[in-house]
Amino acid sequence: MEIYDNHVHLTSSSIDFFLNVFTKAGGTSLNLVNLTEDCFLLEDFERKYDQTISISKILEEKGLHVVVSIGPYPVNYVEMREKIGKDKALEIYRKAVDSAVRRVEEGMANAIGEVGRPHFPTSPEIVEESNGIMEYIFQSTSDNDIPVILHTESLDSTGMCDVMKMARNSGKESLVVKHFSSPIFSGNCNIIPSVPAGRKNARSAPWGEKGFFLETDFAGDEGNPNFVLPADSVPKRVAMLIQEGVDRERIEKSMNFFKEFYKLV
Ligand SMILES: [Zn+2]
Predict the structure, then answer these.
(1) pLDDT tens digits, 139-184
(2) In terms of C-beta density within 10 A (0-12 exposed, 13-18 middle, 19 or more buried), how is residue 84 classed?
(3) Out of 21, 186, 248, 250, which residue is the most buried by the measure of CB atoms under 10 Å away?
(4) Distance in Å, CA 193 to ligand 1 centroid
(5) pLDDT of residue 222
(6) Main-chain dihedrals φ then ψ at residue 173, nearest 5 degrees
(7) By C-alpha distance, which of 103, 97, 102 is closest to 56?
(8) DSSP labels for 28-67?
(9) Which CATH number fits the domain that encloses residue 93?
């Protein structure tokens, strides 16, 4: 069975540790998401995109199915804006989006992410400008319907519908993922919830349906193995569900959803 983690961060020094733990537990596939929190120039972002693409090749060589997500992390916008001013920061963000979209269109990556707005309270100006970047991302990904993975503050049903309204107003009807989502599997205006792979979330998910993901947001390494969730969380939850009597075929159907969602097939 395909066992898929929808949000993993790896560096060249954490690959072996992650792979060992993940595959030993039964993991077969993952979404490799870049982390651009230390990028400030367009070239920094592009270097990080290309590093992420290189890491994905290493994982594929080891037999994993890999989704690659690249894009400017929304949190460094805050610091960047302070250092170089709003106009320049916005320009770099837009160019970083263009550059990521180009790589997806060239077949080097599959999705734009993680992008969005800071998850902590900021000024109304930063929220507004981040929303502007999000609209730009929705517009830039609408033509070829490229999947978008959003990093935002915690969203309830209303917040999810507000984001989808913003997407639709920018021409993007679907393929929007809420990363680190609350377990809101319906009444979400068709945003795709990607929920942390804890026991409670895994038990409450609608197995047998398509339209949601489990994730770890793993960003650790050997010295810090459980940051954010341990690398083997998704395979362990699948094993738990099977043991608790959830039909294997239903789990499989939901686990396979990533292939059509990210157009791997
Ligand atoms: Zn992340």
Answers:
(1) 999 999 999 999 999 999 999 999 999 999 999 999 999 999 999 9
(2) middle
(3) 21
(4) 14
(5) 87
(6) -90, -25
(7) 103
(8) -EEEEE---TT--SHHHHHHHHHHHHHHHHHHHHTT-EEE
(9) 3.20.20.140
Residues 12 and 54: their CA atoms lie apart, in Å, by 9
**Contact call for residues 134 and 159 (beta carbons, < 8 A):** no
Q: By percentage, how much of the chain surpasses pLDDT 70?
A: 100
Residue 162's domain spans which residues?
4-261
CA distance 162 to 170: 13
Is the model's pTM score more than 0.90?
yes
Residue 265 confidence (pLDDT) above 80: no
- How many angstroms is it from 8 CA to the middle of ligand 1? 7
What's the pLDDT at 26? 98
The Å distance, Cα 218 to ligand 1 centre, comes to 8
Q: Classify burial at 197, counting beta carbons within 10 Å of its beta carbon; exposed 0-12, middle 13-18, buried 19 or more.
A: buried
Q: Which residues contact 75 (CB under 8 A, 6 or more apart)?
A: 37, 118, 119, 151
> In this structure, is the dihedral angle defined by the CA atoms of residues 168, 170, 175 and 177, taken in order, positive or negative?
negative
